From TrEMBL:
It holds the Pfam family MtN3_slv. GO terms for molecular function: glucoside transmembrane transporter activity; sugar transmembrane transporter activity. GO terms for cellular component: Golgi membrane; plasma membrane. This is Sugar transporter SWEET1. Its main location: membrane. The keyword Repeat applies. It is found in: Cell membrane; Golgi apparatus membrane. Keywords: Cell membrane, Golgi apparatus, Membrane, Repeat, Sugar transport, Transmembrane, Transmembrane helix, Transport. It comes from Jaculus jaculus. Interacts with TRPV2; the interaction probably occurs intracellularly and depends on TRPV2 N-glycosylation. It is a multi-pass membrane protein. Belongs to the SWEET sugar transporter family. The keyword Repeat applies.
Length: 194
């Protein structure tokens, strides 16, 4: 819905950038973890996710009047990711230690990805409007984080399971905000979703 809104209005008004940037970096990190672990589920899902998020970032950049700020944020997070890759692949020789440290690194990105939509929480409460939150992204986050938590539990991989639990919690918080500031009160939000 955010992509349709950007294309229709040719603007990025009421569209958050940070959740999609952190999701892209998150996908790239978990892709590396999947390659190291030999887990094709992680590899395929995160490859597709990284491609889609990168396309979203490019669309956001196209319609954003703040191109310099968007590029700076993107370059900063990619720099952190590349520095992490360099460290894990060049300076950690033991495969098991690399897997554990990379899993922890990816976990931090996952938690930041799930917390990023809450950056506007104060604004939502102050304005009593959820127009800056994406309902479809909230539902997708809830389903995705629950699925990954179950997958991590099934594999007994705490690096997959534990960092996805905040995604469930933050989605429930956002759903509560949508309920508290119902769509009837927020006409702008309804227009965004059509």
């Amino acid at each position: 819905s955010d992509l349709r809104h950007m294309q229709r209005t040719r603007s990025v008004d009421n569209v958050q950038f940070l959740p999609f940037l952190t999701t892209d970096v998150n996908n790239l990190g978990w892709l590396s973890y999947g390659v190291l672990k030999g887990d094709w589920t992680l590899i395929i899902v995160n490859s597709v996710g990284a491609v889609l998020q990168t396309l979203y970032i490019l669309a956001y950049l196209r319609y954003s009047p703040r191109k310099h700020a968007v590029l700076l944020q993107t370059a900063s997070l990619l720099g952190v990711l590349l520095a992490g890759y360099g460290y894990f692949w060049l300076l950690v020789p033991n495969l098991e230690a690399r897997l554990q440290q990379l899993g922890l690194f990816c976990s931090v990105f996952t938690v930041s990805m799930y917390l990023s939509p809450l950056a506007d929480l104060a604004k939502v409460i102050q304005t009593k409007s959820t127009q800056n939150l994406s309902f479809s992204l909230t539902i997708a986050t809830l389903l995705t984080s629950a699925s990954w938590s179950f997958y991590g539990f099934r594999l007994r991989d705490p690096y997959i399971m534990v960092p996805n639990l905040p995604g469930i919690l933050t989605s429930i918080i956002r759903l509560w905000l949508f309920w508290k500031y119902s769509l009837g009160q927020d006409k702008n939000y309804r227009l965004l979703q059509t």
